[in-house]
Amino acid sequence: MFLSFEGIDGSGKSTQARRLAEHLRGQGREVVLTREPGGSEGAEEIRALVLRGDPGRWSPETELLLFNAARRDNLERTIRPALDRGAVVICDRYADSTRVYQGLTRHDLTAKVDALHDLMIGREPDATFLIDLDPAVALGRGIERGGPDLRFEAFGEDFQHRVRAGFLDLAARHDRIRRIDGTGTADAVFARVLDRLP
Ligand code: TYD
């Protein structure tokens, strides 16, 4: 089983991904928890390139190529081998992030995003949890968290509103994506996730 978590920055999806991994391990299942960009040695190096530095460091097109390079490496080295041996894979962000962040929010690159996905990735999760939260709440959480990987947070709150709308639109078009209300405590949100587990 291949599961992914999506949401705007600071939505709490990483916490939920971790909680689900612990929960399934508690049931005796092998779980590989991975994240994007990253999740393999090479992809973690690409992560530092795309998430650090100036907001204008990369054009949307260059960024799209870097995210695909990172995803391809994570897929080859971490995700596929784990699925092949029967493990559950939980990915903190996956291709829906690219569809929204690179596809919709800056230039309209949707056609290129879809073409590259078909050509180089070609694999969807069995189910995706979209942790949905108001950007005003989420952005506050993101800034509190700090750390060096904040290039996308630097695009600002209006950008996060576009990201949220993009995710909701994707969720409306794909049954695979389950919208989870991200308000309330981590426990409350996790109960909603468990409720929607395939
Ligand atoms: P992440 O580490 O999940 O950040 P956070 O924990 O703050 O949610 O993701 C880092 C950033 O990378 C996030 O702002 C979204 C961006 N991103 C893309 O733009 N495209 C992608 O394909 C992926 C996977 C992430």
Record the strand order, biggest sheet: 2-3-1-4-5
Q: What is the gyration radius calculated from CA atoms?
A: 16 Å
Main beta-sheet annotation: 5 strands, parallel
Distance N terminus to C terminus?
9 Å
List the helices and strands and how they pair.
Layout: E1 2-6, H1 13-26, E2 31-35, H2 41-51, H3 60-84, E3 88-92, H4 95-102, H5 110-121, E4 127-132, H6 135-145, H7 157-173, E5 177-181, H8 186-195
Helix pairs in contact: 1-8, 2-3, 3-5, 4-5, 4-7
Bound molecules: thymidine-5'-diphosphate (TYD).
Key structural traits:
198 residues; alpha/beta; Rossmann fold; five-stranded parallel β-sheet; globular; binds thymidine-5'-diphosphate
Describe this structure in words.
With 198 residues, this protein is an alpha/beta fold. Helices cover 55% and strands 13% of the residues. The chain has 8 helices and 5 strands. The protein has helices spanning 13-26, 41-51, 60-84, 95-102, 110-121, 135-145, 157-173, 186-195; strands at residues 2-6, 31-35, 88-92, 127-132, 177-181. The protein has a 5-stranded parallel β-sheet with strand order 2-3-1-4-5, sandwiched between helices. Helix 1 (13-26) packs across helix 8 and helix 3 runs parallel beside helix 5. The longest helix is centred in the middle third of the chain and has 25 residues, at 60-84. The model has no long low-confidence stretch (mean pLDDT 93). Bound molecules: thymidine-5'-diphosphate.
